[in-house]
Each structure stands twice: as C-alpha cells, then as structure tokens.
Request: fold
Amino acid sequence: MEGFRNLFRLIISCLLICCCFFTNANKSYADSNVTLNDQKKEIKRSLESLKDLDYQTWQIIVYPSSIESKKLILRLVGYPGSLRIDHPTNLIVTSGRKTWDLKDITKNSKMKVQALNDSAAEFDLSILIAELDKNRPLRLRLPGLINDLPIPPYLVSEWRSLSE
Reply:
C-alpha cells in the first residue's frame, strides 16, 4: 500500500510540473507591442533577438519613423562593448536572387545619435518592405560585423504588418 501511495505522489508531481511548463510556454512570434515615443504618442514596434551564424546575438527593432509616416526604421543592436559599428555602413539584405542595399540613417537625427551607443545602427527599411509581396526569409549582412543573420518569415510578416 505504501508503494502505491509513493507511485501516486510521483505521478501527480510529474503532471503538475508538466502543466506548469506547458501552460507558460512562449509562442514563436515577434514581440510586437505599443510604446510611447518622445511626444507621448503611441507607436507600434517589433522587437526580436536573433543569433547570426557566428552565434553573435543581435536585437532587431522595427518601428515607424512617425505616426503619420509609412517609413519603417530597422535598428540593429549588438552587445554593448563587444563591437563598434562605424557609420555609415550600409546593410545588405538578400532573399533568394534579390538583394537590397539599405542606407545607414543612424546619424540623420542628433537626438538619436546621442541616445544610441556604438553598437547600434539604424537603416531605412521602407524600400525593402514595399518590394516584398510575400513573407519570405531574409538574410542580413553588415560588412565587417554580420556575415549572415537569418530573418524568419514570421518576423518579416510582423514588419509588413507595421507598414499597413
């Protein structure tokens, strides 16, 4: 009888632990949320952390330049202190046979330059989003820093939804 009680307690404990893990499991979607900009107006943005093929972690933030504008800005942030991005350095994006050369716009705004550290860069994403008709995977390359950073289709879908 004592062995049966111990087995019953073990099974119940395992079930409770499994329930806790699976009910709190994260979905594999980008973190799209609404934040306040410097004028206290809400803006929707996409935030995701991804690793490149060299196992360097990058934070990728996409947001509209203003509420009225459909222009999207892509901000790449590396681990502070481990690298330095020299500006201007254009971002090369590929998808299949197509290639885009995104312009570095980090130094366009004095306020942003003061707020950003040396391990961050911003690029104009509008041209790329306007030309994409499907949520296809992308590859990012930043000469001298990122050899190959894969962007999954769910994240491209999130970016496209921000431009609508």
Remarks:
- Confidence is low (pLDDT under 50) at residues 25-32.
- Strands lie at 31-36, 42-51, 57-64, 72-77, 91-95, 98-102, 120-124, 138-142, 146-151.
- Helices lie at 2-23, 110-115, 126-131, 153-162.
